[in-house]
Amino acid sequence: MSVMGNTAMRFDEEQSMLLDYARSFCADRGGLNAAREHLETPLEYSPAVWEEMAAMGWTGIGLPEELGGAGLGIGAAVPVAESLGKFLMGTPLISTMLAAQLLLRADGSAAADVLRSIAGGDAACVAELESEDWAALPGKTVIDEAGLLQGQKRLVMDAQSARWMAVLALVGGDVALAVVDAATLSADALSPRVLIDNTHRAADVSFVDVEPALVVTGEKVLAALRDYRLLGALLVAAESTGAAAACLDVTVDYLKTRKQFGKLIGSYQALKHPSVDILNMMDSARSFVYHASSLMGPEALGRDQEIACRMAKAQATDTLKFAGDRAVQFHGGMGFTWDCDAQLFIRRAQGAQQQFGDAQHHRQRLAALLLDE
What we know:
There is one protein chain. By secondary structure, the protein is an alpha+beta fold. It has a domain at 221-371: Butyryl-CoA Dehydrogenase, subunit A, domain 3 (Up-down Bundle), CATH 1.20.140. The chain contains eleven helices and ten strands. The radius of gyration is 21 Å and the shape is globular.
């Protein structure tokens, strides 16, 4: 009997079509050269590419049809996230899909207008962190007696791109979601942060006397927050699995062309074996990711879904970290320079490891789920 309990895995026709099209689109619009073009720009992507994604309905993949979405469920976002990672595309798509899921699961009826806006192509993000603890609840960000939002959030992914921000805050001691239109923020509200992964963007956001467009309260908020964090771990795992595949391609191409002592370095077992290890780890990560996507539904996530998401995140980000490290080492001294593409992958690995909790964070919680029964 599997320790996981549920080992279901499905890859339906819709996911297959999405994967094929997403790979084709991202290969055409993304890749290493495109990623490098935007490393030092205010946004890490081309607005024209984002408009194309919105026109294809990707921002509404996980939303129901009555809210303008595709009605495919959040599991259908996994092949898209994998393709984004494969071609190092740093658009705000993942942040937008996750913000939509948080609002949908907290109170889809109250947030209907915002969700339709997101499905129509408006980017969104979640302002959650006040510290480095991914399990923490808001403590200093509050909605005061006048109904105004006060506080500060750290490392808000894609804050520079977002039209809507779902902000975790306290209302009378209870956790709530304040939905903020970014247009209402002051000019100096965003303080861009320098990330180790230059293919993504984040900022600290200050909220001073901000009037939310919507405040969502009630018992579902905490349950929605829990689901959001697990779904975030899953989509980052999918993105990391795609990036690991690209990293392996870059590494193998180098091993097949670089000669040392008159021989291709790819002929040495000391380099062959770690390359095979990357491939095996990547296949395991992909299995975990698509197993988790098979369990996703509109209902609140249960024990099986939690186990699957945490396993996927731990395996996928460890795989990318190992692949990036080997890529740098195999490229020798050049691998430590900014001009070497291996740098993009090891930096992506370091960033992805921390998003929604690192591998140790998830394995500690898996131990409680799997071993303490």
